[in-house]
Amino acid sequence: MRGCGGDTVWSEVDYALPAGFPFIVDDDNLVVLEDVLLYLHATFIKATGAGLAKHRRRTSMHSVHAAAYDLVDFLRFIVFRIAQRQPGIVISEPQDSGVDHFHLPKFSYSDVIAYRDNLYTRISKQTHEPLADQTCGRRVYRALHYADWLAKRGRLLDEDSRPDIVVVQTNDKDYFVRTLTEQSWRGLQNRLGPLPSQRSEYGFPSSRPRLTAELSLSTGLRVDEVARLTIHQILSLPYDSQATPESKVPLRVTRTKRLKPRTVELPMYLLYELQLYIDGERRDALREAEKYWLRDDSRRPSALFLNGTDAHQHAGKPVKADVISDDFHQACLRNALTSVREKIDPESGVTYFTSVAQHRFHDLRHTFAVWMYLSEKASGNAEPWKQIQTLLGHTSLKTTMDIYLKVVNVERQAINASVFDATRRSWNGD
C-alpha cells in the first residue's frame, strides 16, 4: 500500500481533482483504494464548497499529501491487524474482477484505539527516538476522522457507540518553546557565516545561512516561508539609505502556512544585505548554473535563495527548507550549542547516546516572538499579544498566548527586558 500523486481529472465536475492530488493504491495489484480517495476529496475539496480554484487558495496541497501519507500508515496497520485476526484472509483482492478500485475489509473504532497505542511504542527511523506527541496526535486524528467518515456511510464494523479516543501527552520536547539568549545568538552569527557586506573578495563562505537565520529572527518567518520568498518581493521594496538600520519596511508574504497572506516587518539593514546577496552571491550561482542546466531565461528561478556555486550541477536551483534548517543545525553544532540525548536503534533496539543541537531553525521564530514581547513591554505597550499574533500569522490570539505566555513570564523574571530591547536594535551584529 503506498501513496501516489496523480493528474487524473474525473469526468464528473463534482469530483474533479486538481493536478497532483494524491491517491492510495494497493501494493499487490496497484488498484486505487476508492474509500480513501473519496474521503480525501470530501475532506479537502468538496468540504470547502468552493471549487478547484478556491480550493488551491484555501488548502495547501502539502496538507492533502500529509493526510494521505498518514492514512497509508494507518491502513498498513489495519491490514496487518486484520490479517492477524483473520488468518488466511485475502485482503488485496478486488471485490469485482476487472475493476480498478476496491474497498478494504471493515475495521472498528477498537482498531483505531489499537493504532493509537501502537504509535506510542514506535521508534522513529529518522530520529531514533519515540515518535513525537505531535506526530502521534496528528496520525490518530486522521485515522479517527477517516473512521467517522466511514461510519456515516455504513463502512465501519458495528459497535455500541463511538468511544472517546484520547491522545496521551508525554511532555514531548517538541512542545517546549526554546529561545536563544543574546550570547548564544552572537556566537551563532559567527558560525552561520558573514553577511553579504562582510564577505571576502573571493566570495567564501556563503552568506545564505546567515541571511536565512537573520530573516527568521527579525521577522518571525517559518523556514518554509523563508525558502519560498522571491527576488521580486525584495526588489520591489524601497531601500532608504538615510534610514536607521533598525527601521522597518513592510514585506508582504503570500506563500505561507494555510496559504494565509500576511505582512511582516523587515529591518532596513537586512533589506540592504538581501539586495547585496541578489547582486552578488545569487548572481554568481546563476552564472554557474548556465554551465549545466540554465539554457534560457524561461527556466531562470525567481526564488530568492539558491544553491551556491559549490553545488555545481545543482547551482542556481531554489534551496529547500530542509537545507536551510540543516545549515542552522550545523552552526549550532559548530558553536557547541549541544546536549546529550538518549536514542534507540530501531533495528536492534540498542540504546546509545549522542550529541544533538540544542536549537532548531524554528526556535528563531520563537525567539522573535519572545524578544518582541519583552521589548514592547519595556516600551510601554501593555498588551503586545495582538501585534505578535498578526506578525506570526496565527489564526487566533489564543494560539499565540497558549504558546508564549508561560515562557515570557519565565524570561521576564530572569532577564531585564531592556536587554532584549537593546538586542533587537542590534540584530545586525553591530
TrEMBL record:
Residues 175-418 form the Tyr recombinase domain. CDD domains: DNA_BRE_C. The keyword Cell membrane does not apply. It holds the Pfam family Phage_integrase. GO terms for biological process: DNA integration; DNA recombination. Keywords: DNA integration, DNA recombination. The keyword Ribonucleoprotein does not apply. PROSITE patterns: TYR_RECOMBINASE. One of its GO terms (molecular function) is DNA binding. This is Site-specific tyrosine recombinase XerC.
